[in-house]
DNA sequence: CGCTTTTGACCGGCGC
DNA sequence: GCGCCGGTCAAAAGCG
């Protein structure tokens, strides 16, 4: 995300709502995705496309059919892979339970092999909370490599890094740990941007920052300030702060990187959220431009109760998640002139953790499957949405990342009450990348906004 | 005096 | 190769 892109993109909204049904017309959210029925998912497009309509399918439609079929094949393959992994996991779990009953629930909590989710603070927490003394990172690697006795990291990596052609594939890095480094490098490039109305020069997010630079960015009369985390020596986390060009009351804070030190609870929520979002952005993608769509699905999955909030730019080299709090400012943010405080130290505090916690809480209840009730009500469908959905739910990293995100929020005190209403307008917005004379043409943004 | 901020210079990536 | 641009560095200045 860059200044120009932040500064007033007005995305064109194209809706791709979708409701999924299994082959026996059972709503998909009631379907066990980890059964064979997953392959039988069909799109309930009857409300939109009558049979006669298919005769009018143009080449794009046909291409979509081909893509969809390809996607189904891929899903079958992934499912078989997943089944195999599940069997191995069960076996592993049983063996582990036999060995040491106190580990009995460990696999349940992390039901799939997953890449290091890498939030330093969470790793710290995990390492503290586990009795075997292994860090989360260590255990992740063990799971990846020991599930069936062979190294599966390449396969998993295929799910993690497909969205960026510029990220080196690590075919030669099976045994030296460089996968983690490369993944981390990619993750570091992923950014999370928070848009919030504020008269204060900087939002209070619980961390200590030192300003190390300021630049005028093209297309924005407001300077962009660069900050580095100073809570620990060598902490790689940086953030950029800039006012929106079109509405200077909007403060845009862009975070990049993962802290290498424990965080205070105040900073924990936003840090883990940005990290989780960034990782989900990267993990929920496909090898083509469709990856962007998947990322959007993640956005509306991750933030089901606030479709105006989540914006994801998945394009390389800096995929970016934007949390737009300006839409809900009246109820969520303190009055103009007061610094925003996400630290949970006063009455209106923990706002961001609350938002995120609530959305993740909702997500945890709906498992990411009840994606578009509104869409179904409107009778709108999308084949791209189907492929999109199938890929995401087939991605082991999705669940793992989601679980980690949820656990991070819960442990960070941002659980939120949750309204249970995972409603979302599954609108996929596309901007032309020229948002307000965009500085960075590399970011093609796909946004969600309530119409 | 030590820390932070400011600000011009420098560097690397990218497009033409 | 050149220019543009974003990002970073580091010396100087400011501040408590």
Automatic annotation (TrEMBL):
GO molecular function: DNA-binding transcription factor activity; sequence-specific DNA binding
Domain WRKY span(s) in chain numbering: 198-264
GO CC list: nucleus
Subcellular location: Nucleus
Keywords: Coiled coil, DNA-binding, Nucleus, Transcription, Transcription regulation
Entry-linked Pfam families: WRKY
Entry-linked SUPFAM superfamilies: WRKY DNA-binding domain (SSF118290)
Low complexity composition bias: residue spans: 424-439
Ranges in a coiled coil: 61-95
Transmembrane segments: none
Segments of skewed composition (Basic and acidic residues): 440-451
Chief localization: nucleus
UniProt family annotation: Belongs to the WRKY group II-b family.
Protein name per the record: WRKY domain-containing protein
């Amino acid at each position: 995300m860059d200044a120009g892109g932040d500064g007033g993109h007005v995305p064109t909204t194209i809706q791709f709502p979708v409701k999924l049904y299994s082959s026996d017309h059972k709503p998909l959210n009631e379907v066990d995705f980890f059964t064979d029925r997953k392959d039988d998912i069909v799109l309930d497009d009857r409300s939109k496309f009558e049979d006669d309509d298919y005769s009018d399918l143009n080449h794009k439609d046909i291409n979509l059919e081909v893509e969809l079929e390809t996607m189904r094949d891929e899903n079958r393959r992934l499912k078989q892979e997943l089944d195999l992994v599940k069997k191995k996991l069960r076996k592993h779990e049983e063996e582990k339970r036999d060995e040491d009953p106190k580990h009995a629930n460990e696999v349940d909590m992390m039901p799939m092999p997953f890449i290091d989710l890498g939030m330093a603070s969470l790793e710290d927490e995990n390492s503290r909370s586990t009795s075997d003394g292994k860090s989360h990172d260590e255990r992740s690697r063990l799971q990846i490599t020991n599930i069936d006795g062979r190294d599966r990291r390449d396969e998993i990596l295929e799910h993690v890094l497909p969205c960026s052609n510029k990220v080196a594939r690590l075919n030669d890095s099976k045994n030296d740990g460089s996968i983690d480094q490369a993944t981390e490098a990619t993750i570091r490039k992923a950014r999370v941007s928070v848009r919030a109305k504020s008269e204060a020069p900087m939002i209070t997010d619980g961390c200590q920052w030192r300003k190390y630079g300021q630049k005028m960015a093209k297309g924005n009369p407001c300077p962009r300030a660069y900050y580095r985390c100073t809570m620990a020596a060598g902490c790689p986390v940086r953030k950029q702060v800039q006012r929106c060009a079109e509405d200077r009351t909007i403060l845009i804070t862009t975070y990049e990187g993962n802290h290498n030190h424990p965080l205070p609870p105040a900073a924990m929520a936003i840090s883990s959220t940005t990290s989780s979002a960034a990782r989900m952005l990267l993990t929920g993608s496909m090898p083509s431009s469709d990856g962007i769509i998947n990322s959007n699905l993640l956005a509306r999955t991750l933030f089901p109760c606030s479709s105006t909030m989540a914006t994801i730019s998945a394009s390389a080299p800096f995929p970016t998640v934007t949390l737009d709090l300006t839409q809900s400012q009246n109820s969520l943010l303190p009055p103009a002139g007061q610094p925003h405080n996400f630290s949970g130290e006063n009455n209106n505090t923990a706002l961001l953790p609350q938002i995120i916690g609530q959305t993740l809480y909702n997500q945890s209840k709906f498992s990411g499957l009840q994606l578009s009730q509104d869409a179904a009500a409107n009778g709108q469908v999308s084949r791209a949405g189907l492929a999109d959905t199938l890929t995401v739910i087939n991605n082991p990293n999705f669940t793992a990342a989601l679980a980690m995100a949820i656990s991070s929020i819960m442990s960070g005190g941002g659980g939120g009450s949750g309204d249970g209403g995972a409603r979302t307008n599954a609108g996929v917005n596309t901007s032309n990348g020229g948002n307000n004379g965009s500085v960075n043409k590399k970011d093609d943004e796909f946004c969600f906004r309530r119409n």
